[in-house]
Predict the structure.
Amino acid sequence: MPRFLTMVRVDENNSEGGFTPEMEQRMGALLEEITKAGVMLDTGGLTPTAQGTRVTWSGGKLSYTDGPFTESKEVIGGYSITQCKDMAEAVEWAKRFLQVHDESFTVTCEVRQIAED
């Protein structure tokens, strides 16, 4: 069965910064459901870009840039790895994940199938 990476994109500069108790409850229920369904393989949030470093290879040389990455409007704020029957199922879970967020949030999920040998 194919695996999918869902990257959760957020606007780090305009983040509300917290989940309401109701949103935490909805999120917990969804994560429990997707785990019991055998779909969720791994998930997690990421620390702010201020705590990150970009490593670039260009022109035969390495360069490093410490965060925050102010030129980025959207950053990856979290991820999940799921195992679904097809892209449609992976997208359906991503839609349900987005819908548990409060209306004040702007969140985008990019769903990509993991290339298998």
About this structure: The longest strand covers residues 75-83.
